[in-house]
């Protein structure tokens, strides 16, 4: 079977997950929560779980972690102060208290408080707090798994956040707490009671495909579509030698787990039923064997052309470790070939060349296999006609393989020639583009020079106008001073003229008054003279 298994659903998650098995029997390490750093540090033969790539907690929890406040009973202290102490709950309360009691309290609590409670559990599942977080998680998981009242009927009455926390504690998967992931209440309950796969991207009903084998029947939460038969963990690695599928029962096993548990070993050839031994994989689910060399060849022929450098080196390392203990000639040659290609790639060998080399090696092994089988028949004498027929078959097969290789070489040559022509055309296009860019650059340079000349001309005009403006300003100031002087002189002359006129008027009035007085005096004298004459006559 080829390694591509059930692909993630289009609406599901496109990332890798790691989890802690929820079955105590299958978790000899005490069900420790896996963190990113823990998985990276583990050697390939110690862990078959993939790296967890879920986003970290939000900024509030990140700040809380930096301050060292990772204790499980602390989150409610940093939440809204209006929550009374009687209504506050902790993760341990959720794990041990009755469903109805916690559900009623959660309905009275604000959403901010519940989000903070979930973030606290996410921090614990990330495992950045070391042994303290692991011990707290194990305590919470023991509390949940020891309860007998958590059934499908009772969990229907649970609060949504309460159910997410219980499922996350029971499975050890923090993805159930992620804000962007929303499963139905029914799905969460089925995951908790092991009726649905805990892999969020799988979500198949259990047992998957109604499998009735002992493992699918007796192992809680096991899904044969996405989980390893040995470690009970899942990931989304496809098109890889990381997973080995059984040819008969279609159950899957991590290559690392199979090597560690001795499920990969030498055994009698499946094709011949006896004779020379070869590397075989023994499935733990059905206890039957599958041939490995042909499986590896199929994987590389179907998937290797699409691998990049790092994946190709990783796959070669997987194959090298699979056939490290091989005793048959073909397995030993494959082991040496993988080791040689890994060393060459570390020295700078291009991945396309290494891919062609390993594919060519598989073709050579396939051509040599009839000869090996013929030489391995214990030295039995065969009829000359049979020998000639076998030789003819081998020759025809070799010719066919050589023709296939020649066709592949011709196809690669044509492809390379087309690529070269395309590169030449692209080079010509780039040359034309460079010429156009140079012309455009020259044009822009001339435009810039013209603009600079205009700027200098305008600057000279501005300076000239500024000079004229300064001269006009000075002339205006001179004329203003002259105008002020003339104005002062005019005012002074006007004042003098006015005073002279007033003086003339005063003199005229004085003369007039003087004449009037004289007239009055003469009139009074005349009247006095006439009065004396009258008296004298009398």
From TrEMBL:
Its main location: nucleus. It holds the Pfam family Oberon_cc. Residues 7-21, 33-52 have a biased composition (Polar residues). It is found in: Nucleus. Residues 1-54 are annotated as: Disordered. The keyword Zinc-finger applies. One of its GO terms (molecular function) is zinc ion binding. Keywords: Coiled coil, Metal-binding, Nucleus, Zinc, Zinc-finger. Residues 227-287 form the Zinc finger PHD-type domain. One of its GO terms (biological process) is root meristem specification. GO terms for cellular component: nucleus. Residues 420-482 form a coiled coil. This is Zinc finger PHD-type domain-containing protein. It comes from Acer negundo.
